[in-house]
Write a structure and sequence with these properties.
It is a single chain. This protein is mainly alpha-helical and 64 residues long. The chain has one domain. It is built from four helices and no strands. The radius of gyration is 15 Å and the shape is elongated. The N and C termini lie far apart (33 Å). It comes from Candidatus Sulfurimonas baltica. This is Tyr recombinase domain-containing protein.
């Protein structure tokens, strides 16, 4: 569940939502928490890569 928070912050941050707004919506007092921990990794692209990997594995299993 916590990973979804990170992914959501990645998406909203890319969309231009300020760190102060993201921080407040997550219940953090300091926006530095968002910029230091949540926005340091692009969780959205990692999720998309993981999904592609799972699809490749499942598609390969269907062929066998």
């Amino acid at each position: 569940m916590h990973y979804f928070r990170h992914t959501l912050v990645s998406v909203l941050g890319r969309a231009g939502v300020p760190a102060q707004v993201l921080s407040a919506s997550l219940g953090h007092q300091h926006s530095g928490t968002v910029t230091s921990y949540y926005q340091t990794v692009d969780h959205l692209s990692h999720s998309q890569s993981a999904n592609e990997g799972v699809l490749n594995i499942t598609n390969n299993n269907k062929k066998n």
